[in-house]
Specification:
Elements: E1 2-6, H1 10-21, E2 25-29, H2 33-40, H3 51-60, E3 64-67, E4 79-82, H4 97-109, E5 114-118, H5 126-141, E6 147-151, H6 161-166, E7 171-174, H7 178-193, E8 198-201, H8 203-234, H9 238-246, H10 267-280, H11 286-298, H12 301-309, E9 318-322, H13 337-347, E10 351-355, H14 360-367, E11 372-373, H15 377-381, E12 386-389, H16 401-407, E13 412-415, H17 423-427, E14 431-434
Parallel strand pairs: 1-2, 1-4, 2-3, 4-5, 5-6, 7-8, 9-10, 9-12, 10-11, 12-13, 13-14
Length: about 450
């Protein structure tokens, strides 16, 4: 099976490398010349656990190729995946201009039946716009070449994307013809052999499934964050409330963790796009609009807790941030809570010291020289009045509390992900704040 994947970012590169690992011959296509040149040298544009090894192995084995031209590889492939970016516009709607450019190039270049599959996250109905764009290019050429479209949304979690792709809990495919179903079934047969669920449906439903899934997960996060705020006001403990909720099999435990807000390339963009899609059809998504509003406010919570701890003024204070990526195991800082926290601290006159195991280079591109970049969590905490945990990296989970207290100037610790036992930092002389803590102030140092 020969395929092309257009777009060599997070979705496209992971998909291409994993399909190659399954035995397909894959051409990864991107208009960014520098990115393609780097990929040919084994230099990846993103950090994703296990991806480097897959790219290196399958490139060496001759199954994974990189090119800037879709037209140059169309004669060699039977399936083309669109995996380009769909960034949000000013009104929150998804920008599908790059998708339409791929559709036009596909229409200009195909010479025989080819299946065009949408992997980019796009508004409902986009696949049919793509189909029309391809047909228009074929009309311009004066040819009648058969093709099909399909929707195959991705459900990869950053940080474990390779694992998710190789062992998915489901594969959703929207198709229009038996021919398309047969061809894409051949590509996904290795997954069928392992009894993973491949769910076929119509194209419009497949497009909606992607947005609906991410919106539901975002809703659970915002619900727990709002509940955590109420717990703080009433004296309840959100961690105990969560345990009680999660024991209900109808609810479960996933995505019920309160924190300092969700970020990344998917949830914020997809929630906005779903709201925009509804508005375009004359409907207001009231629940999802509230989810977005709650998340926007939640990203300020670390700053609010720090401001409270210092009686309303952070001017001249030094604050250390542990973690900058929007989640562990990635260098992605798109829509990350850390960005909001840093900007608010700087506006308040604080000095900000930061450390992240992977995202430091990404952070430099965002913050420039406005923060101090450190080598580890203790270096970041050196001379700090307060430490705030933003991203729950595993290596942050068991710090040496007494060493931390010794290097700090002050004794404020704000746990933005509720990963610590409050008594441990308190025992080392730290005043501990978290999300949804039953104490109205903090767990004071002992």
């Amino acid at each position: 099976m020969n395929i092309a994947v257009v777009g060599s970012g997070y979705v496209g590169l992971v998909s291409g490398a994993c399909f190659a690992e399954m035995g397909a011959e894959v051409w990864c296509v991107d208009v960014d010349v520098r990115k393609i040149e780097n990929l040919r040298r084994g230099v990846l544009p993103i950090y994703e656990e296990g991806l480097q090894d897959l790219v290196d192995k399958n490139s060496a084995d001759g199954r994974l190729h990189f090119t800037t031209s879709l037209e140059d590889c169309l004669d060699n492939v039977g399936i083309v995946f669109i995996a380009v970016g769909t960034p949000p516009g000013e009104d929150g709607s998804a920008d599908v201009s790059h998708v339409m450019e791929v559709a036009a190039a596909f229409g200009r270049g195909i010479s025989r039946y080819t299946l065009l599959v949408m992997k980019s996250t796009v508004p409902v109905g986009t696949c049919f716009r793509v189909k029309e764009a391809v047909q228009e290019e074929l009309r311009k050429r004066g040819v009648d070449i058969p093709f099909d479209i399909a929707s195959n949304p991705e459900f990869l979690k950053e940080g474990v994307a390779v694992k998710d792709f190789m062992t998915p809990d489901r594969v959703v495919i929207g198709i229009e013809s038996d021919r398309a179903r047969s061809l894409i079934s051949s590509l996904y047969r290795p997954f069928l052999l392992n009894n993973y669920r491949v769910i076929f449906m119509d194209v419009l439903s497949a497009e909606m499934t992607k947005y609906a899934s991410n919106a539901m997960l975002a809703t659970r996060i915002s619900f727990m964050n709002e509940l955590a705020r109420l717990c703080e006001l009433t004296g309840a403990d959100v961690s105990k409330v969560r345990a009680g909720m999660a024991s209900d099999s109808r609810i479960g435990s996933k995505f019920l963790y309160p924190g300092c807000g969700y970020g990344g390339s998917c949830f914020p963009k997809d929630v906005k796009a779903l709201i925009s899609t509804a508005a375009a059809h004359g409907y207001r998504m009231r629940v999802i609009s509230a989810v977005e509003e709650v998340n926007r406010e939640q990203k300020k919570i670390l700053y609010d807790k720090l401001l409270h701890a210092f009686q309303g003024s952070l001017k001249g204070r030094t604050v250390a941030l542990w973690g900058l990526a929007f989640k562990p195991c990635t260098d992605d800082m798109r829509e990350a809570p850390s960005i909001v926290t840093v900007n608010l601290l700087l506006e308040a006159g604080a000095v900000v010291r930061v450390f992240d195991p992977v995202a430091m280079d990404t952070a430099r591109g965002i913050f420039g020289d406005s923060v101090i970049y450190c080598t580890d969590i203790y270096d970041a905490a050196a001379g700090a009045d307060a430490v705030a945990l933003v991203t729950e990296w595993k290596q942050f989970r068991i710090p040496d509390w007494r060493r931390l207290r010794e290097v700090m100037k002050g004794n404020i610790l704000v746990d933005g992900r509720n990963i610590y036992n409050p008594q441990e930092p308190a025992g080392a002389g730290l005043d501990y704040y978290c999300i949804g803590c039953p104490h109205k102030e903090a767990v004071r140092s002992l």
